[in-house]
Design a protein that fits this description.
Blueprint (H helix, E strand, L loop, with lengths): L9 E8 L1 H14 L3 E3 L13 H24 L18 H42 L6 H5 L9 H8 L5 E8 L3 H12 L4 E6 L4 E2 L6 E2 L1 E8 L2 H13 L3 E2 L6 H57 L3 E2 L6 E8 L3 H14 L7 E5 L16 H10 L10 H15 L3 H16 L1 H4 L6 H9 L1 H18 L20 H6 L7 H4 L18 H34 L3 H32 L17 H10 L17 H32 L2 E4 L5 E4 L15 H25 L2 H25 L6 H41 L16 H11 L1
Antiparallel strand pairs: 1-10, 1-11, 2-10, 3-7, 3-8, 4-7, 5-6, 9-10, 12-13
Helix pairs in contact: 1-8, 1-9, 2-3, 2-8, 3-8, 6-7, 10-11, 11-15, 11-23, 11-24, 12-15, 18-19, 18-22, 18-23, 19-21, 19-22, 21-22, 23-24
């Protein structure tokens, strides 16, 4: 957890590796996953680099593997999971055997697919021929000719009489069903009605040999007279892609032909089954090793891609690479260099040299599965600058707590806790689940956030004494009613004086008697609004205070005086004072006080008091009361406002003036070559990095920052009122859902229908509770909490101008490939 306080220290290293040991060494570094390489060939095109041939070779192997995977998916094969037995990167000599095996497998699959397409095409043609012979048998019977459909305009005899004497010919075939209408109209036009067409729609679907899609077809027979008309019909059949088949006019010849076709179909079916069996055996053999081969090829491709980032020295005997390495992992890198040299038996060891960087290092916050979700929330806004305080460490507590302030309900918190606990306890199995979609990935990645949000919601639910909009009477009530029975029943509403009707302070949270009070909303409104202001001022004050840690770390001592002190004074003297007065009001005014001006009825409004303080106004108090809570409060407030207003020019002018006078006091240092450079007279401070910037621009920038801080302090304090608003809205929605839905089931008087309706109403109440109060309200509270951290908290501490450390890691590469698939 200590690693998350700020990003780890990074070192820029040079790696000197012998060419024969480069592959093995990079493989070891990929397994370690703690090195981010820099591209030393930035000006060289990708196709001109040393190992571009090897990268293309790996891409060709990946193409073959993808082709085999598609064939396996067609046959319904499932690839075995590689749990812990993940193979290492292959030796370059081993890949030759793998390449040959994949080549043979691909060629065999291509040959099998071509043979299968050819066989299925022949099988489909024989099936079509059988359908033509079987379905046209009735067309040639004399009974069919004599009993033509009366609705037809032309009969066979009419065609013969119109065309004159001659033999009646015919063409039989089959075509797609959707083309029949156009085919029939075209025949009508070219023959002027002298073609008699009979057709039968087939119910059995054909499968396309190439695509496997289902096709519905129609058998047809076109009767005509004359050779010229025959040629026209054949051209139309060719244009509509209709398959024409020989069909004898003799009944006996047709039946003999059908028998022969059926025999050939049986033989063809047997050959197809044998081909499918052989194909399945080949795929079953390949499927056992395909995941291993895929990982090996991906690792090999990543190694060669990384080697293309290296540079070759002038002697061509050493490869040089540059990389960012966390200083805590330098020993791991050195061990990887030694292991790579030992694998190839190289007598000349590889070595590492730490050099001075000329750019800002990448930001690396070492996380685990618990802290990763919180770090992702911060990085989604911006990556922290190198060495900057990491807000994710504090977000682990503040994020679920502020969420729970808005989502405080024991019942809803338990639901969220159970969901988060389910994902945490079964995370090993759930992490391997595929096909969950992007939403599931987000939920599972934030499982520990959801778990903590549920725990904190249960806690705040106990403080609010709220469980599904009802209260728990755990410690009893601190209120005691001394009215007699008749008085209570005769009066619809009675007031209870805390002085006479309360016994001490309630043990934890709210007294359950408030569930029955008519002024419950008024009390909760005041209580939660004050809490939201107190939490907001505390949260912002913590953010401003953490900026001191950044100033000390970067040795910006001047900014502590020029930025931090006026900022924290402005926040504390105005809004911190308002939060203090809330506590003071709770302590000072009591129903047991004997002094009228110190009773709750005379307690002034803190909000009105703060507005009067800022506007230098006063509000006349009630009779017998006092405007202020203590003596000399007015003068104290005037002093606080005056100091707060003085902080504005302090923030506005101190830094530009410091830069201006620092420039004047620079000393011109002349070296032995006669050249010179300017150096500050002493110390380091806010002027660093502004030596060449005009003073006008510095003043404008500082004015923008000052105005932004002053206005944001006011608006951010008001922004924390969302804690109050969403908490009240959540409680009221829960109360409405209980009172308008679930209570309806209890009020049904029937002994028979009542239990059934109660069950139905309970299902409806559960659905709305999950959909509206847990999911929608939970998502709303989550987004508002995220905004409070990104804007209200992180703006006081966070620069976010860094870039993430992306190490060369086989584990991360394989994970990203799985997510893409």
């Amino acid at each position: 957890m200590g690693d998350m306080f700020r990003s780890e220290k990074m070192a820029l290293c040079q790696l000197f590796i012998q060419p024969e040991a480069a592959y093995a060494t990079v493989s070891e570094l990929g397994e370690a996953g703690c090195v981010q390489f820099r591209d030393l060939n930035d000006g060289v095109h990708l196709f001109q680099r040393k190992f571009v041939g090897e990268v293309r070779r790996c891409e060709e192997l990946e193409r073959k593997i993808r082709y085999i995977e598609k064939e396996l998916a067609k046959e319904g094969f499932e690839l075995p999971e590689l749990n812990e037995n993940i193979p290492s990167a292959p030796n370059p000599r081993e890949i030759i055997d793998l390449e040959a095996h994949l080549e043979n497998t691909e060629n065999e699959m291509l040959e099998l697919n071509q043979n299968e397409v050819s066989l299925r095409s022949n099988y489909m043609e024989l099936t079509e021929l059988r359908q033509v012979l079987e379905n046209t048998d009735d067309f040639f019977s004399e009974q069919e000719v004599l009993n033509l459909d009366s609705n037809r305009r032309y009969s066979i005899s009419a065609v013969m009489n119109h065309s004159g004497r001659g033999e009646l010919g015919f063409v039989a075939g089959i075509l797609k069903r959707e083309r029949v209408f156009g085919f029939e109209r075209m025949l009508w036009r070219i023959s002027r009605g002298n073609v008699f067409l009979r057709r039968v729609d087939l119910n059995e679907a054909f499968k396309d040999p190439a695509t496997g899609h289902e096709i519905y077809k129609t058998v047809f027979v076109a009767f005509f007279q004359g050779e010229e008309l025959k040629n026209r019909i054949k051209k139309v059949c060719s244009g509509f892609h209709a398959a024409m088949y020989p069909c004898p006019s003799s009944h006996s010849e047709r039946h003999e032909m059908i028998k022969g076709v059926r025999t050939r179909l049986e033989d063809m079916r047997m050959v197809l089954n044998q081909t499918d069996d052989h194909r399945s055996r080949v795929l079953a053999t390949v499927s056992k090793n395909l995941p291993t081969w895929s990982i090996m090829v991906k690792k090999m491709k990543a190694i060669y891609f990384t080697l293309n980032l290296f540079n070759m020295d002038v002697t061509q005997k050493c490869m040089i690479g540059e990389c960012w390495v966390p200083t805590n992992d330098l020993m791991i890198v050195q061990r990887a260099l030694a292991a790579g040299s030992n694998q190839v038996g190289n007598s000349i060891p590889s070595f590492l040299n730490v050099i001075e960087p000329n750019e800002s290092p990448p930001t690396y916050n070492r996380t685990n599965k618990f802290t990763q979700g919180f770090q992702n929330l911060i990085d989604a806004y911006a990556v922290a600058s190198y060495g900057e305080v990491n807000p994710a460490l504090y977000t682990i507590i503040t994020f679920p707590f502020l969420f729970a302030v808005m989502f405080g309900d024991v019942g809803h918190g338990i639901i969220m806790l159970l969901f988060g606990a389910w994902m945490v306890l079964w995370e090993k199995g759930l992490s391997k689940m595929k096909g969950g979609g992007e939403i599931w990935t987000i939920f599972f990645g934030g499982r520990y956030i959801i778990l903590l949000m549920g725990i904190f919601s249960i806690y705040t639910g106990f403080i609010y004494n709220d469980i599904f909009s009802k209260s728990m009477n755990v410690f009893g009530s601190g209120w005691r009613v001394h009215y007699d029975y008749s008085t209570v029943h005769a009066n619809p509403s009675l007031q209870l004086n805390p002085k006479n009707y309360t016994v001490g302070v309630y043990w934890l949270g709210m007294d359950p008697i408030w569930q029955l009070a008519e002024n419950k909303i008024i009390f909760q409104n005041s209580y939660k609004m004050k809490l939201s202001i107190i939490f907001g001022v505390t949260h912002m004050l913590f953010g401003v205070s953490m900026s001191v840690v950044n100033h000390v770390h970067f040795r910006r001592w001047g900014r502590i005086f020029m930025e931090f002190l006026p900022q924290v004074l402005f926040l504390l003297l105005l809004f911190g004072y308002m939060a203090f007065m809330m506590f003071f009001k709770w302590v000072k005014y009591s129903a047991e006080s004997e002094i009228l001006s110190e009773t709750p009825g005379c307690a002034p409004s803190v909000l009105i008091m703060f507005i009067n303080m800022m506007l230098f106004k006063s509000t006349p108090p009630l009779e017998g009361c006092k405007e202020h809570m203590f003596e000399e409060q007015y003068y104290l407030q005037m002093g606080l406002v005056a100091i707060g207003l003085l902080c504005i020019p302090w923030m506005l002018l101190s830094r530009p003036l410091y830069i201006h006078f620092t420039r004047k006091n620079k000393i011109h240092i002349v070296n032995h070559n006669g050249t010179g450079r300017d150096a500050p007279a002493g110390g380091s401070g806010g002027g660093h990095g502004h030596d060449n910037e005009p003073m006008g621009e510095i003043l404008i920038q500082q004015a923008i920052h000052t105005i932004e801080y002053v206005l944001s302090t006011i608006s951010h304090t008001a922004s924390y009122l969302r804690l109050w608003a969403l908490s009240l809205a959540h409680a009221q929605l829960s109360e409405v859902l209980w009172g308008r839905v679930l209570t309806f089931g209890f009020l049904i008087p029937s002994y028979y229908i009542g239990p059934v309706m109660l069950f139905v109403v309970f299902i409806a109440w559960s659905f709305f509770t999950m959909a509206i109060l847990v999911m929608m309200e939970g998502l709303s509270a989550f987004l508002h909490t995220l905004r409070l951290h990104w804007v209200e908290f992180m703006s006081k501490i966070y620069e976010g101008e860094g870039y993430a450390f992306t190490p060369f890691s086989f584990k991360q590469i394989l994970k990203e490939d799985d997510e893409d698939e």
